[in-house]
Design brief:
The chain has 610 residues and is α+β, with helices and mostly antiparallel strands. It is 46% helix and 12% strand. Strand 2 and strand 3 (397-398) form a beta hairpin. Helix 17 (297-312) runs parallel beside helix 19 (347-359). The longest helix is centred in the N-terminal third of the chain and has 17 residues, at 58-74. It is globular. The two termini are 36 Å apart. 41% of the residues are buried. Residues 1-11 and 42-52 have low confidence and may be disordered.
Length: 610
């Protein structure tokens, strides 16, 4: 790691805290700075010099920070300790982020002394590195009296994220406001940020906050940044207070429902719902007014999405009193059965209406009492994404969001159609879920499935983001029956997805049609961006005259696209498999990957990369 030189510590310059207060005081109308105020040395602080020391590993940096700061942080004199920290971080010449990250994890011999030093650093420090260390310590050690100082330092561009982290356990609204200001890249959140900042601690936020929240979230094409920051938006606006003050406000109820569903979503980001303290209270308010808005397609889709979250998603893990979750689901079911909307004309809306018809009953089919194992397939609102998730319920509680917070369960094609969950004579490991950003980044959840006499056992957990559960035991006959039921259930499928599953099943059961053309691994799936098109993927690796050493030689990936033509899925699948058996797919499929040299040598066009 390379660092940057700090300016001479404790120079006769104003503290960063005083500077932040001054900058905010001269801001027109006290406006909240979206990008944050720059440090006093220039637009983004002092420019970093050329690297002046060798890169360090993370362990080396941790050890250096610990050795440099352990003594000063144990000093009972906060003034002397703060001066020593300034000198220490200047000598270390490490990036500020590295200093802060390691300061949050430092073992502290004397926490009261470290707290006093952190306060001295944040209130009088002049170096961004040293003040950042103080903020990092207050993530663990901060108390309510630190809130005004943290809010002021959070206005500086380079300290916003660490100040928000320190504020999080003390003042969720202030932390959320700082976080949103850093996320409003294109200005979508600016009206809400300005309204919240202007309202301050006004009861229930004031009309400006309500209006900004409704304008942001009730538009049909509400921005993606609002979905990703749903919890922070709810915290900044004090959504629970707004609903309490305006129980009859249907636009506010719609906005709250969309925020709840976005917080529960696990398909493209971490679900934040379990970190949102008033979640259960907001669900109650939304369901109580669920019948009030006009029965539009948007409204029905939102109600069904909320029901799916309560039935088998993250919302089922909230701390519900006995029977309340079931009561909320009952009210949502009654609303959905009572209202209908006319068939829409736009293709995208027709797709959503078909999704609504297919899934209208799915969240309400709860076995009573809850079964030891229940496998459900959940399909997202097509306007959000074509994501399909396998959800595993243990005695009615969803397993995966309780164990793994970084991504959804795998699709049924992976866990069910391929027999991954079946318990055979030999134990085998199954990946149940993977982080949305890939396993290499944020991990995956694994379990070992084995048969033990008349039981099927799940144990050997690996990759859980919290403590792994004890082994789970199921009656083998009931377990096999539930896996078969879930595998055979295609009521969730839209036509193209049903066609794809049938093609994959036929090619898996009878690989001969593809094998006769020298093709290996063939499967069908629907596209993420075009869910109404089936794509059949073939892998081709020619047999060379002289086998290469240490490998199988280059290969190609062919893809055959089949748009849904309106015929029944079984008819389309049978026709596709018949064509594969009669004609070499390499003659009509397109090359999608593999070896460019091999493709060109065989006369195939290499795909253009736009």
């Amino acid at each position: 790691m390379s660092g940057r030189d700090e300016r001479t510590p404790l120079t006769p310059a104003p503290s960063l805290h005083d500077y932040a207060l001054f900058r905010q005081g001269i801001e027109p109308d006290g406006r909240f700075p979206r990008r944050g105020h720059p440090f006093p040395d220039g637009p983004d602080g002092p420019p970093p010099p050329e690297p002046s020391r060798p890169r360090l590993t993370w362990t080396q940096a941790r050890d250096e920070v610990a050795a440099a700061l352990a003594g000063p942080l144990a000093d009972p004199d906060p003034v002397r300790a703060a001066e020593a920290v300034h000198h220490a971080v200047a000598r270390l010449r490490l990036p500020d982020r590295t200093l802060r990250a390691n300061a949050t994890r430092l073992p502290l011999a004397d926490e009261p002394a470290a707290r006093r030093t952190a306060r001295q650093l944040t209130r009088t420090g002049t170096s961004p590195a040293a003040v950042g260390v103080g903020l990092a310590l207050l993530i663990r050690l901060g108390e309510p009296e630190d809130v005004p100082c943290l809010k002021a330092l959070g206005l500086l561009r380079g300290l916003r994220s660490v100040a928000a982290a320190a504020l999080d356990p003390l003042d969720r609204q202030a932390a959320a406001l700082l976080t949103l200001a850093g996320r409003s890249r294109s200005g979508e959140l600016d009206p809400l940020i300005e309204a919240v900042a202007a309202a301050g601690s006004a009861p229930a936020g004031g009309e400006a906050v309500r209006d900004a929240l409704a304008a942001l979230l009730t538009a049909p094409d509400w921005p993606a940044v609002a979905r990703w920051q749903a919890r922070r938006i709810a915290e900044a606006a004090r959504l629970d207070d707004l609903l309490r003050a305006r129980p009859e406000d249907t636009a506010l109820v719609t906005a709250a429902g969309r925020l709840l569903h976005a917080m529960a979503d696990r398909c493209e980001h971490r679900a934040d719902l379990l970190d949102y303290g008033p979640a259960a209270q907001v669900y109650r308010a939304v369901v109580a007014r669920a019948a009030a808005p006009a029965p539009t397609l948007d409204h029905q889709v939102l109600l069904l999405s909320l029901a799916s979250d309560l039935h088998s998603g993250t919302a089922a893990l909230l701390d519900w009193p006995a029977g309340e979750r079931e009561a909320l689901l009952g009210r949502l079911q009654a609303h959905l059965h009572r209202i209908t909307a006319p068939e829409p004309a736009a293709p995208a809306d027709r797709r959503r209406a078909a999704w609504l018809r297919r899934n209208r009953l799915r969240p309400f089919r709860l076995p009573v009492p809850p079964a030891p194992l229940r496998i459900e397939v959940a399909v997202a609102d097509p306007a959000d994404s074509p994501a399909v998730e396998t959800r595993i319920l243990i005695h009615g509680r969803p397993l995966l969001p309780a164990l793994f917070g970084n991504g959804p369960g795998h699709a049924p094609e992976y866990l069910l159609d391929n027999g991954a969950l079946l318990a055979g004579p030999e134990p085998h490991e199954v990946q149940l879920a993977e982080a949305s950003c890939t396993e290499g980044c944020c991990g995956a959840l694994y379990v070992t499935v084995r048969r033990d006499g008349d039981d099927v056992v799940w144990d050997g957990w690996r990759g859980a983001t919290g403590p792994p559960p004890p082994e789970l035991r199921f009656d083998a006959a009931a377990y096999d029956a539930e896996v078969r039921r879930a595998t055979d259930d295609d009521s969730w499928c839209w036509p193209a997805r049903a066609t794809a599953r049938r093609i994959s099943a036929a090619l898996r059961e009878r690989p001969e049609p593809a094998a006769r053309w020298g093709l290996g691994r063939a499967r069908a799936h629907t596209g993420w961006h075009d869910p109404d098109t089936v794509s059949v993927t073939f892998h081709y690796r020619p047999e060379p005259a002289t086998p290469p050493e240490g490998g199988d030689g280059p290969g190609l990936v062919f893809v055959w696209d089949l748009p849904d033509d309106g015929r029944p899925p079984e008819v389309q699948a049978a026709a596709a498999v018949a064509r594969i058996g009669a004609t070499d797919p390499k003659a009509f499929a397109r090359v999608a990957g593999g070896s460019r040299e091999l493709a060109e040598s065989l006369g195939y066009a290499w795909p253009r990369r736009d």
